[in-house]
Amino acid sequence: xxxxxHPPEDLLADYATGALDEAEQLVVGVHIADCARCSSxxxxxxxxxxxxxxxxxxxxxxxxxxDAVMARIDRRPQAAPRVSEVAAHDPxxxxxxxxxxxxxxxxxxxxxxxxxxxxxxxxxxxxxxxxLLRSEAGARMxxxxxxxxxxTCVLKGSFSHLGGYYGPGDFDYxxxxxDHRPVVGDEGPxxxxxxxxxxxxxxxxxxxxxxxxxxx
Amino acid sequence: xxxxELIGRVAARGDREAFKALFAHFAxxxxxxxxxxxxxxxxxxxxxxxxxxxxxxxxxxxxPSTAGAAAWIFTIARNQRIDAARxxxxxxxxxxxxxxxxxxxxxxxxxxxxxxxxxxxxxxxxIERLSVEQSTVIRLSFIEERPHSEIAAVLxxxxxxxxxxxxxxxxxxRDLLDDAT
Lengths: 216, 181
Prior knowledge:
heterodimer; A: 216 residues; alpha+beta; 7-stranded antiparallel sheet; 3-stranded antiparallel sheet; elongated; B: mainly alpha; Rna Polymerase Sigma Factor, Chain: A; 72% helix; 0% strand
């Protein structure tokens, strides 16, 4: 697999320092798990952050901090590995990245002809939403732009738009200046992991007519 | 002090003396680092403690050939901090107690820095080649999360210069990592 579209560097740095919103962090994380190049970049920021932590001015911890930590270690049960029960029995999720399978994933919902989505149930503290977007082979998304940011990582299949061809592992970043019309590849359905803030804006007459029915 | 060796002793035989030395060095620095990056003192204390619990329980995952001890501990503290914020928002939503544990949220990447030795060497070499000016803006902007206007004031530079310097530093880091491939 050749990954040719990567997240912008500032997004990778925010990922490394934990500054991203939960949904965004998941999408960037799934790309990084597959991409040695971006993974190196994140490692570099983590290394700089480690040096910064090591050089930080120490602030005394509570007088009983060490004893409290040892007590927590001693009474800690052996952790059982977590496997999402949903993912274990869901054929559509087979073969997806571990990070996705460990999430709680909601029910499928039709969005538009040939397009459906399943929400990823997050903690609810973030400002962006995450979902799996499934588009049938050859489907044409309506021409659209965003009122916020949209981060996409391709999991299966492919799509193309003005920015090029996007296959598994590729990352697409759309902000409120991007106006594009993705076309799904013919090889099969395209499954993407998407984090989105704001709403999609549909263009053209058809878009204006059906926009109220497109619930993304 | 060889922190990696101490982490290895914790992993191999639950060495409490080694852990005590790690705690004495890192716990106050984690707390100081968190306060500097915007945590309140109580939150920083709690995260520093849960980070040290996780250092003990995850010590076996630490690979000294691929990661520095400080970077590894940073990633644990980072994940604990994110996890604490998420638990707080879940609790707020559910209005019922949620058991706090030391396991990080399932959507988080592993604390373990999974990478090959060559990758670690390349990353270290790239960081070495960044200029002080470049590593400084990366630290201020991303690690300490200071607003650009504040960085401009600290460095005595116009805002536009700060923005372009950050961008150049990020591109340079990317190029240095790519070149070494």
